[in-house]
Amino acid sequence: MEIKQISAEETQDIRHRVLRPEQPESNAIYPNDDLEGTFHLGAFENDVLLGVASFYPEKSAVIMNHAQYRIRGVATERRMRLKGLGTALLAEGEAKIWARGAEIIWCNARIVAVGFYEKHGYRKVGKSFVIPGIGEHYLMTKPNPNKTVDQDC
């Protein structure tokens, strides 16, 4: 498996099919996909794209840290689940984010993904909430392990 930087457009097919199959394809285009500082990663096997993840220099209204990054659109082909693609994408994304000086990473994790993020050091903040048309989520955060920062939420 190889993790490479990809374009926002390259994420959209897997995002749509895995995360939002009942919605219009246009819903796989996220705000800030082309924002300066945003990057997208793809997991490839034999040059076939099998998983994607996007990382945004975006602030949560709930988190007070100054230098924040958001994870969004982590998705792998169903047949590739539990084979380490999500872990590899997350690890590569985190390394790039920490190298950019971020204090904290956050995401809105679907209920089914909470265990995945907890396994990688993220913690739930507050109560669950519903994103209409998508489902129940938790805000989850992970502070930069190389910095001493307050995690004020």
TrEMBL record:
Pfam families: Acetyltransf_1
Gene3D superfamilies referenced in this protein's UniProt entry, alphabetically: 3.40.630.30
PROSITE patterns referenced in this protein's UniProt entry, alphabetically: GNAT (PS51186)
Signal peptide: none
InterPro entries to which the protein is assigned, alphabetical: Acyl_CoA_acyltransferase (IPR016181), GNAT_dom (IPR000182)
Keyword Transferase belongs to the record: yes
Location of the N-acetyltransferase domain: 1-145
GO molecular function, one term: acyltransferase activity, transferring groups other than amino-acyl groups
Keywords associated with the record: Transferase
Zinc-finger is among the record's keywords: no
Protein name: Acetyltransferase, GNAT family
Taxonomic source organism: Listeria welshimeri serovar 6b (strain ATCC 35897 / DSM 20650 / CCUG 15529 / CIP 8149 / NCTC 11857 / SLCC 5334 / V8)
Lineage: Bacteria, Bacillati, Bacillota, Bacilli, Bacillales
